[in-house]
Amino acid sequence: AHILAHAVHETFPGTKLGIGPTIEHGFYYDFLFPKNIKANEEYFEELEIRMKKIIKEGWIFSGKKVTPAEARKIFKNEPFKLELIKELVKEKKQLSVYYTCPPSVKGQKSKVNCFVDLCQGGHVKRTTEINPDAFTLTSVAGAYWRGDERNQMLTRIYGTAFKTKRELDAHLTTVEEMKKRDHRKLGKQLGIYIIN
């Protein structure tokens, strides 16, 4: 999810970051795109190319615990992150950030060319540990921030990732087979309607 957020942030400057957890068979990330961008699947190829480049370049993940003041400074232009920080502070939880930096930044204190995200961690050490041929972006949907319809509608981009391309291909085949058997789709195709 961090690599997707990184690619989106570079490709669409001004995009605001929501959250990006892992889910069964993959991940998603919520974004608020600039008003002039209508994010949809037509951007997937461009984003996947950038993600694969980041993976192959061996960007380094490094975590750091931060104070609330440091976190607010880092994310001063990210309203959704600021809301999360406020909530985490209220719950007395430790704040941490993860940097994704190009290999040239290794060991430097300055994280100028790095992507940073608010995260509790659990990452690979380098992006090269991820198979660039074993992930794909799968869909885009609308999602209210924090699942609350009173909040702003964000764009959620889903992806799936596996250790090998073979596992990815098998998963995608299974998903396609399940879609073919979807009762809503079959009902329309067969002209079956049930009226209660």
CA gyration radius, whole angstroms: 19 Å
CATH homologous superfamily annotation of the largest domain: Threonyl-trna Synthetase, Chain A, domain 2
Low-confidence runs of at least 5 consecutive residues: none
What's the total helix number?
A: 6
Describe the structure.
This is threonine--tRNA ligase. The chain is α+β, with helices and mostly antiparallel strands. It folds into two domains: 2-161, Threonyl-trna Synthetase, Chain A, domain 2 (Threonyl-tRNA Synthetase, Chain A, domain 2); 163-196. It has helices at residues 2-11, 44-57, 68-74, 79-90, 165-180, 183-190; strands at 16-17, 22-23, 26-32, 60-66, 95-101, 115-118, 135-144, 153-161. The strands form two sheets. Strands 1, 2, 3, 7 and 8 form a five-stranded antiparallel beta sheet that branches. A three-stranded antiparallel beta sheet has the order 4-5-6. Strand 2 and strand 3 (26-32) form a beta hairpin. The longest helix has 16 residues, at 165-180. The protein is globular, with a radius of gyration of 19 Å.
